[in-house]
Amino acid sequence: MLGTGKIGEALLSGMIRGGLSPARLLVTARRPERAAELRERHGVEAVSNAEAARSADTLILTVKPQDMGTLLAELAPHLPVDRLVISGAAGVPTAFFEERLATGTPVVRVMTNTPALVDEAMSIISAGSHATEEHLAHAEEIFNGVGKTLRVPESQQDAATALSGSGPAYFYFLVEAMTDAGILLGLPRDLIVQAAIGVAVMLRDSGGHPVKLRENVTSPAGTTINAIRELENHGVRAALIAGLEAARDRSRELALGT
């Protein structure tokens, strides 16, 4: 695990909870105090990036997109061609890695999200030109430890980043707005949280379409339809669609280094 920040540590802890021995895991961190923290908390060995490239059979790169080029330049002289490289960097295509590493290096691109911290992530997986079914299955095994996975063509990764990778922020934004509305109406701050949990569980377990589930709550001439009318009048649906398109476009810009 190279560049073990919040998401990297979430994956690390998920793999350990899934039964992988800490003795089989290596981590790298920019700051020595962070490396010591990871060693103490998880029982893993902290090494340099070069040593990780020489020793590990799978490298999971979780640094920021703008730092990926520098990291690959450091890894390239030490990385054998048979090592699997998994990238978690938004907007960075597998071709970026393949151009900077030895010809034939298998690369898998994964966009996960912060619910990995509670083992409820949605991780979107795409193969590079040299990645095999075995490589994809190995990536799925890793990320299934912190949630669910879905394979898509790499051409859909920017859209997946907008919808799933950034998705938690939209829900937090909505809950924040509803919490403020509740306060305005004289209600406690934590009231909406259980409603949000209930909705998520019903969406997951019932198999019902969101429209149908919404209609089940929306009585004719009732309170709910009045609220939905106001949301539509204020363009909430259109704003969400425009927001996701903007996030997708930004992911494409990151791929161009802008």
Instruction: Name the helix and strand elements from N-terminus to C-terminus, one letter apiece.
Output: HEHEHEHEHEEHEHHHHHH
Average pLDDT metric = 93
- End-to-end separation in angstroms reads 26 Å
Strand tally: 7
CATH level-3 fold name of the largest domain: Rossmann fold
Q: Spans with pLDDT under 50 lasting ≥5 residues?
A: none
Largest sheet: 5 strands, mixed
CATH homologous superfamily of the largest domain - what is it? NAD(P)-binding Rossmann-like Domain
Tell the overall outline: elongated
Helical content stands at 40-55%
Specify the number of helices. Answer: 12
Tell me the strand percentage band.
5-15%
Task: Give the spatial strand order of the biggest sheet.
Answer: 3-4-5-6-7
Overall number of structural domains? 2
The radius of gyration is: 21 Å
What is the structural class? alpha/beta
CATH class of the largest domain: Alpha Beta
CATH architecture of the largest domain: 3-Layer(aba) Sandwich
Features:
5-stranded mixed sheet, Rossmann fold, single chain, alpha/beta, 2 domains, two-stranded parallel sheet, 258 residues
